[in-house]
Structures are given as structure tokens and as C-alpha cells.
Specification:
Strand content: 15-25%
Cofactor: Mg(2+)
CATH superfamily of the largest domain: HAD superfamily/HAD-like
Keywords: Carbohydrate metabolism, Hydrolase, Magnesium, Metal-binding
GO molecular function: metal ion binding; phosphatase activity
Order of helices and strands: EEEHEHEHEHEEHEEEHEHEHEE
Shape: globular
Helix content: 25-40%
Distance between the termini: 23 Å
Number of domains: 2
Family: Belongs to the HAD-like hydrolase superfamily.
CATH class of the largest domain: Alpha Beta
CATH architecture of the largest domain: 3-Layer(aba) Sandwich
Radius of gyration: 18 Å
Pfam families: Hydrolase_6 (PF13344), Hydrolase_like (PF13242)
């Protein structure tokens, strides 16, 4: 049983929230999202906006959110790329990594003190990119075969686009796993480590932290396993009829973040 099941949003000091499906939907702000963020700012609540997407730097994401109608400072954004970089820094400071990914991941690893190289790396780090290269995937397979540790930023098999789903990190990881017989260690949701690293960033404690998400299979289960108060909203993936398919429950179920404002 979640230790916070008898608490209310008014008891929460720190908030973690997913981005897509909670604050934004198809590049438009969800009604109530801007007001919720402003309420957190006005009441000096510590908060982070989380995303499994490793493509963008916090600066890029802040600009994209601004274009959607949301003002979120860079320091309030936490990506799977940042969580991965923090994890690797704790494992092997000043390590070496061969990276398949874009600026969000390479920048995070550089800032964590890593050397990016395809020569004798300690890690192969796989993140999101819109330009997966057969050559780079082949190099990753050979490096893992030679002993490099295999890390993935997130397990998502597909990502959205205007034309339909795109293969994402999880799909490419499966290809590499098939070729190497090595499973990656995945840092992003639903690994609770993503939330623990976020809480460390804002000096939050699990007993007074909540997670808002739109997916039972990532946001809610990871929040529950990290000991957080969990809030499910229906502006993204999971819908009311889906909840009974899971053997666990969120602490709160709301239509959208607009329904949360009055309780904070």
C-alpha cells in the first residue's frame, strides 16, 4: 500500500510531472497546465517536468514548451538524458562512452565529464534520434561485443509523428540485444531511478513528493515503486476503461491537471 494513500495534494511539497499527455498534447498546452505551473511558482513549490525523450536539451525543451504556451524554466526540466548522465557519472566519473543520440544526450554526458569516443569506450549509450545510422548501430554492436556496457536512456519502442509511429530507443535496443545477447540497463521511466534522480535534483523526499502521469505502465508504476503519491490524468495514453487491466492503482485519478489546481 502506498504510504501516502491517506494524504492529499495539500500535503505535497514537491511535484514531479510527465510532460506529453499531462501538460502538453500534440504540441498544445493542456487546459489548466499553465495555471498549475503558475500555482507551483506562486506557492514556492519545488517541481520538475519529466520526459523520457532524450533528444532535446533543457534549453531546447523550454523553448518548445514556450511555443506550446507554457513557461517552464530550464532548471525545472528533467530528461532521461540528464538522468542517464547523472547515473553514469556516479558509476564511473570521467568515463568514456560511444553515444547514439542527439544534442540532449551528448550535451548531458559532456557536462557530466564524459569523453565521447568510439575507441575503447566503457559504455555504449543509446538514446533517441530521428536519424538512426546502420553504421553507428553496427559499431555499437561490435563495441558491446568487445565488452562495453550497454545503457539505454528509455524503453519506449515507438515515438509519435504527424505521419504515424516512429521506431524509438526501445526498438533499436531490441535490435542490438538480438545481435549481442546483451540487455541494456534502462535509466528512464519506468525505472524508479529516473524519479529518484529527479528528487535528488530538487532535494525532495518521497513522503512529500507526488508524480502526475498519463500512463499506468510507466508514470504510475514507477511513481508507486519510488514511494510517491501518484496522480493519473486522462489527457494522454491511459483512459478510464484501461485502469482495471493493471494490478495496482494510482492514489488519485483526475480528468486533467486543471482538476488539481483547486487542491493545492
Amino acid at each position: 500500500m502506498n504510504k501516502l494513500s491517506n494524504r492529499t495534494p495539500a500535503d505535497i511539497e514537491c511535484w514531479l510531472t510527465d510532460m506529453d499527455g499531462v501538460l502538453v498534447h500534440e504540441n498544445q498546452a493542456v487546459p489548466g497546465a499553465a495555471e498549475l505551473i503558475q500555482r507551483w511558482v506562486d506557492t514556492s513549490r519545488r517541481f520538475l517536468v519529466l520526459t523520457n525523450n532524450s533528444i532535446y536539451t533543457p534549453r531546447d525543451l523550454a523553448a518548445r514548451l514556450h511555443a506550446s504556451g507554457l513557461e517552464v524554466p530550464e532548471e525545472n526540466l528533467w530528461t532521461s538524458a540528464l538522468a542517464t548522465a547523472q547515473f553514469l557519472k556516479s558509476q564511473m566519473p570521467h568515463g568514456r562512452a560511444f553515444v547514439i543520440g542527439e544534442a540532449g544526450l551528448t550535451t548531458a554526458l559532456h557536462e557530466a565529464g564524459f569523453i565521447l569516443t568510439d575507441q575503447n569506450p566503457d559504455y555504449v549509450v543509446l538514446g533517441e534520434t530521428r536519424t538512426y545510422s546502420f553504421e553507428a548501430i553496427t559499431r555499437a554492436i561490435r563495441l558491446i561485443g568487445d565488452g562495453a556496457r550497454f545503457i539505454a536512456t528509455n524503453p519506449d519502442a515507438t515515438g509519435p509523428s504527424a505521419e504515424g509511429p516512429l521506431p524509438a530507443t526501445g526498438a533499436i535496443a531490441a535490435l542490438i540485444t538480438k545481435a549481442t545477447n546483451r540487455e541494456p540497463y534502462v535509466v528512464g521511466k519506468p525505472n524508479p531511478m529516473m524519479f529518484r534522480s529527479a528528487m535528488n535534483r530538487i532535494e525532495a523526499h518521497s513522503e512529500t513528493t507526488a508524480m502526475i502521469g498519463d500512463r499506468m505502465d510507466t508514470d504510475i508504476i514507477a511513481g508507486m515503486e519510488a514511494g510517491l503519491h501518484t496522480v493519473l490524468v486522462f489527457t494522454g495514453i491511459t483512459q478510464p476503461e484501461d485502469i482495471d487491466a493493471y494490478p495496482f492503482r494510482p492514489d488519485q485519478v483526475l480528468g486533467s491537471v486543471a482538476d488539481l489546481i483547486a487542491h493545492i
